[in-house]
Design goal:
homodimer; 9-stranded mixed β-sheet; about 25% strand; 16 helices; globular; alpha/beta
């Protein structure tokens, strides 16, 4: 009740909670103030000499606003939103802007509805963007299609914050009607415009796109700010832009920067956190800690117009982090709307999750035989050559199949029978195969192996649920089930990390050059928008020419 | 069409307009960039080497975003919104946030509907707030009452941006149900909290109030920012806070400051402009010009979430000011959504105005006789003592009526017959009177004179329409009609200023100490919230005790 809050703010009635003797990080005035913070009914009453039903002496710890991840694909952590919450809230994250692009490619509206419902079973505040590119390209064969008309319907039907990252720059600037229909249906549109500059960037901005998380240089970030974009500085598993982009930040334009992770592997989420890691890294690089907190807490609340959030200020949501050090590596307590949700690195809540029945059993293929995957080696056919530590691939020609592996991409939703095949250079798999149902962005089955028999064994072991399977000598030696859409588990992030470690150990036995990287390559070898040659369910795709070879 | 804009942004189709060779004020990156700005279909395409159907070489002039007045009572300029537009647009103002508090006190919903409709006949972008305090206090007898229930209805019925300045701090903190109903009905609420600090300010902020334009010290502004308020730096006729408040601005908190005028007399609007004057004054005081433009253009667009406005950036509204000097005193051209609306100080548009039939003839009293206004002098009755150059008054006791004037406040809407009377010290009116239908905030009739006969003559000459009348020796020597609610004219600001000058000249003949000040005092002597003693329609009011004497 407003009345209760106001009486409590006046000091006439005790607050629910008072955090005493803190160093309050004031992101509005860019200063640190010693004092007490009072909370009532989930709202910050303000600073002052308050009494509370519960009083906690934080003994000089920093009191900061809760952290906000401005752009994240939760699916990349391989867990459901509620399980994700248990992993990130102890690290200070209280709000995320999630783009459920992966599950939308697998299960369309059912996938989106699941994510929204599941997120409600944790205290993490999750704002969803409606994915704008399902499928990611016209050459993809994903589980679902969300066209312009359906975009309009879904925006009305669900409480989306806006349209998710518009990756289809060519579609925007070529004025493809269905793409423009999507742009015109949303007020807030996330951007994705790596290396787009000049007039092309002007045109993209005119499409109504408000932010960008794909900047890789400081100069690019500055141009984008002048053109009206907010810049989300990304520090994820694949892409780490913080060190470079912080060079562009000054006291005047800092308001236009925020932090995000985009995609972060569960092991890294557990090990280093997400947005807290951005703060830590920025501070270690010598940047102003209060800048870092302003970017971590307040700026994206303004960018997304989330209301009174992101600062320790009167009437704001009581999303609060108590951290012993300014680097946010020693977080002691995390409050969400005034409720203590994590302490000393542990979540204090349990999650129930949502009904998964509509997002399970997403693998819909007939049994695969070795001959379905077999392709005789032909020195005149292009081989995809991998580059260590990069998702960028080349196309080469080889004299023999020695040292090459066979790879296939199997359409898994509509029994089209589409199977793309190619040889791959850079991984030498011996008498075994690895198959998985994670394959950006359509998440068809990706399988790589020494031969088609091992590969068929791996694919068939995925079952209806999907996940990751490692086969050695035609026998399954490791299997991890990802029952939700073949891309997420309902288990905790810790369990998922532990299972994934076993998969990596097994993969290592197949290939000396293998390891975690093999799996990452498998996940991205079908992503038809990363140069130069990729494998789709119709064969090798020339990304630069944007057509199948 | 989005398609046309995008093709034009790409340079494939000519822009409508290109401003060439400008010094572009980039409020997003806090820098000045030399270049060209292209416009199509009312939208800024961006900067670059564009060709246009129309190309204008601005020869090194500054290209700035259009100015925004963050909080204004247009009625104080004594003209309708459309006429106001003709006065302020040549001075660079393209958007105002208007609080039609005065007309609402006179004519309630009809007054609001008139303001909204009338504003549509000019290119000025007027966003209206729904007045929250009609009447201003429980002791006022205004033309209309807008209670909590009606507030909810009006917010739904009209396109208000939110709730206008909540002046009723006591009502907010005493948790008066009707006041809280108003607070809970709006998402965005303007503030009005002069000198409120500490826990009281915390409580007021918790009411959902987002900004404040009543700060008088830098320290007060800093506290309010830390508590989540945006600060509108006011530079109007009565209150001039810019010089003091600019001391609080630093590069980090500058984002929370914007400019406003609140109340500005028409003569000053014409002479010095409104927001351009804030820029000029800030620059002359030695503050960073780009800070001034950011406060004048961009910050309140963010505060009010007005969308893509307030910067020279791609996809933003083409609200553009071309000024020869950085002080904005030599404005050459003003564009609203890409259309040239003013050049060299002259508006290039005509206005039709709205139908005034429902807001005319607002004076509803029987003929006033001298005895209605007469009050014998009594040395035991309090006299209101004026202070030169201030709206603050004192209560004193005098031995005789020598040097005093008689004053009355006449309820003018409901024929209640309420007439408050008192003697006033500080103005020595000889054989004459001045009456007017402007009297904050209820706008009952205020009349002051040497005797009740002259006063009755002045009041009766106001007629049904109202306005300002000066009587000498019982004869009207000057009259200015304010047909719209008795507070605004449909004439141009220039005509109103000219008429008002004649009123002032006439008033001067009555009192050597008179002049413009007499009229200002008359307008505010009934404002029951300014210390220490005022005159309402029920008599002398003790503002400090908040009760009639």
């Amino acid at each position: 009740m407003l009345k209760d809050i106001i009486q409590s703010a006046l000091g006439n009635v005790k607050a629910d909670l008072v955090l005493k003797n803190g160093k309050i990080i004031d992101v509005l005035n860019h200063r640190i103030v010693e004092g007490n913070v009072a909370v009532k009914d989930g709202v910050i009453l303000g600073t002052g000499d308050y009494e509370g039903e519960r009083e906690i002496d934080v003994k000089g710890a920093y009191i900061a606003p809760g952290f906000v991840d401005s752009h994240v694909h939760i699916e990349s952590a391989m867990v459901t939103p509620s399980q994700y919450a248990k992993a990130v809230m102890p690290k200070g994250v209280t709000t995320v802007i999630a783009d459920p692009h992966e599950i939308a490619n697998v299960k369309g509206e059912d996938g989106l509805a699941f994510m929204i419902e599941d997120s409600k079973s944790s205290p993490l505040e999750v704002h969803f963007m409606l994915p704008s590119c399902v499928p990611a390209t016209p050459f993809d064969h994903a589980g679902c299609v969300i066209d312009g008309e359906m975009t309009e319907e879904l925006l009305k039907k669900y409480d989306f914050l806006g349209l998710g990252e518009m990756m289809n720059y060519p579609g925007v600037t070529a004025c493809v009607p269905d793409v423009h229909k999507k742009l015109e249906s949303a007020e807030y549109i996330d951007g994705h415009a790596p290396m787009i500059r000049g007039m092309g960037l002007n045109a993209y901005a005119c499409g109504g796109i408000k932010n960008d998380h794909e900047c890789s240089t400081a100069d690019e970030a500055l141009e984008k700010i002048s053109k009206g974009f907010d810049i989300f500085v990304r520090e994820g598993t694949g892409a780490k832009n913080l060190e470079e982009l912080m060079k562009a930040v000054n006291p005047y334009n800092m308001r236009h920067f925020a932090f995000c992770t985009d995609d972060k592997h569960p092991a890294e989420v557990i090990r280093e956190g997400t947005i807290s890691h951005c703060i830590d890294k920025a501070v270690k690089l010598g940047y102003d800690p209060i800048d870092a907190y302003t970017m971590a807490c307040y700026n994206s609340c303004v960018s997304y117009n989330l209301g009174r959030k992101g600062a320790i200020a009167s009437g704001f949501d009581a999303d609060i982090v108590v951290t012993r050090d300014i680097n946010a590596t020693q977080i002691e307590q995390v409050y969400k709307k005034g409720v203590l949700v994590a302490e000393k690195g542990k979540a204090l809540f349990e999650v129930k999750g949502a009904d998964t029945s509509k997002v399970e059993n997403t693998v819909n293929i007939d049994e695969i035989k070795a001959e379905d995957l077999y392709m005789p080696f032909d020195k005149n056919k292009m081989v995809i050559s991998l580059n260590e530590g990069s998702l960028i691939t080349d196309g080469v020609y080889c004299e023999s199949e020695e040292g090459l592996s066979l790879c296939a991409n199997i359409e898994r939703y509509h029994k089209t029978g589409n199977i793309g095949r190619c040889y791959v250079k850079g991984l030498d798999i011996a008498n075994g195969a690895i198959a998985q149902t994670i394959g950006h962005d359509s998440h068809n089955i990706s399988v790589i192996g020494s031969d088609s028999e091992n590969m068929a064994a791996a694919v068939n072991a995925l079952g209806k649920q999907g996940g990751i399977v490692v086969v050695s000598d035609k026998k399954v030696i490791a299997k991890m089930e990802l029952a939700v859409g073949g891309i997420m588990s309902e288990k905790s992030v810790e369990e998922v990390v532990s299972e994934h470690e076993k998969i990596v150990e097994a993969a290592k036995t197949l290939s000396p050059s293998g390891s975690n990287e093999t799996l990452m390559i498998l996940g991205f070898i079908s992503l038809l928008v990363i140069p130069h040659f990729k494998l789709g369910d119709k064969g090798v795709f020339d990304v630069d020419k944007f057509e199948y070879v």
